[in-house]
Amino acid sequence: MTDDDAGVIRSVGEGDAPGTPDAGSDDHVITPGFVDAHLHLPQFDSIGQDSMPLLEWLNTVIFPAEIRWADGAYARSMTRRVATTLLSHGTTTVAAYATAHAEGTQSALHALAEAGIGGAVGQVLMDQHAPFELCFPVDEQIREAKLLDAFARGLDAFPRLEFSLNPRFAISCSPALLRACGQLAADLSANRERPVMIQTHLSETLDECDLAVRLHSGPGLMTPADYASIYDRNGLLTPRTLLAHCVHLSASERSLIRAAGSVIAHCPTANTFLQSGTMPRRDLVRAGVPLALGSDIAGGPEISMPRVARAMIDAAKVISGPAAARDVHDDPRLPSPARAWWQITGGNAEATGFVHAGRLAPGLSADLVLVRPELHSQWLTRGDPLGTLLYSWDERWIAGVMALGRWRYLRA
Question: Of 29, 127, 363, 386, which has the highest C-beta tally within 10 A?
């Protein structure tokens, strides 16, 4: 049962008592709404633009798409369309990037909130190594970020959506911008119950790593020990920092991230699509680094989080080696289907600090996906029913999606 005014779960039960609501039938499965820990809202129309390494892909495909968000009306219209797409795939909570445009970011925040989607959205902060239409003076960006944070906090009717600070990555951010961003993060986090979220990218490709270190070295700058140190020395590694990719980390970088309590958003479909490499999940788990899982639209071509979860297992299999060397039940090298399902629901919610999401429990947001699997009737009695569900997954099985206690998507 849900509290219709608050959009939260009041109680959880079988639903067969008189006067209690019910959905579906014995053929349906109810799962918490999916949580996507890394995606780019303006990139949904750029899915599938292939055959380019990361930096070339950004310049050729992504930056032109993001320039269009200078028009706030266009940004709102696109975000509404993206929200419909996300909900139809079962995603109800996101950690997202908008663009460098304050008006477009505000439009995106409002459109997602209207759709009942929770999580965090940030204006992309950047002032170098990108088209001039996307680069703005540091003072202007910091001023706009403060205003956007105030706007998001003023959305009283939509308490699940927050503003985040999103310095794109060290290549597109000057030392001055990273310093200012770190100071703003500290200022915004002061006297709050929890710190502001920071989203950025780290060590997706080897070329990126080399260029980032070169750009943040030189006269007046201490040469960073590594890529992660660039963020650390600017106060950007915090317990609410979400670092996308982290494919090429050194042992010292893993230790630095673990000590800061920052979270890595693993994006396996994007790493494969852009041929960035395979993230060594095993090493990160063993190092005690918290992990989340993201689609990274449009670097990743999959919108569906169950498919991204399956890709996480596939990537781990590539790293782990022959089957005889692993134990699917007790080895961080290879997550089980049950672990994968937890990752895209409660696991991602826990890692990102979106405590309202990811579980079906009293007091949490009434976000759920009603699924009717077209499987043989005996699938639930098999040894690993979640494995069957994950590897057979079809978005056409989604009968309905509820967010904040309202049905936002119903399959015709």
Answer: 127
DSSP per residue, 325-384: G--TTS-TTS--HHHHHHIIIIIHHHHHT-TTSSS--TTSB--EEEE---S-TTGGGSS-
The residues facing 245 across adjacent strands are 202
Residue 369 CA from chain centroid, whole number:
18
Mean pLDDT, consecutive 10-residue stretches, the chain (412 aa), reads 73 69 80 98 97 95 98 98 98 98 97 96 98 98 97 79 97 98 97 93 97 93 93 98 98 98 98 96 93 98 98 92 53 82 97 96 96 86 90 96 96 87
What are the boundaries of each domain within the chain? 34-365
Residue 46's nearest CA partner among 29, 31, 66, 27 is: 66
Closest CA to 158 of 239, 90, 81, 92: 92
Using CA atoms, how far apart are residues 76 and 304, in angstroms rounded to an integer?
22
Cα–Cα dist 240/267, whole Å? 18
Angle at alpha carbon of residue 258, lines to 252 and 259, rounded to 5°: 90
Q: How far apart are CA 300 and CA 294, in angstroms?
A: 9
- Which sign, positive or negative, has the C-alpha torsion 261, 266, 270, 273? positive
Alpha-carbon distance 24 to 398, whole Å? 11
Rounded to two decimals, the pTM is 0.95
Which tokens in the block code for residue 336? 């089980």
Decide: 95 and 130 in contact? Cβ < 8 Å.
Answer: no
d(CA 237, CA 118): 23
The three state secondary structure string of 41-110 is HHHHHHCCCCCCCHHHHHHHHHHHHHHHHHCHHHHHHHHHHHHHHHHHCCEEEEEEECCCCHHHHHHHHH
Q: Which amino acid is at 41?
A: L
Could you tell me the CA-to-CA distances from 268 to 34, 173, 255, 294, 305 in Å, in that order? 17, 25, 22, 8, 11
CATH superfamily of 34-365: Metal-dependent hydrolases (3.20.20.140)
Instruction: Return d(Cα 113, Cα 56) in angstroms, integer.
Output: 33
Mean of pLDDT over the chain = 92
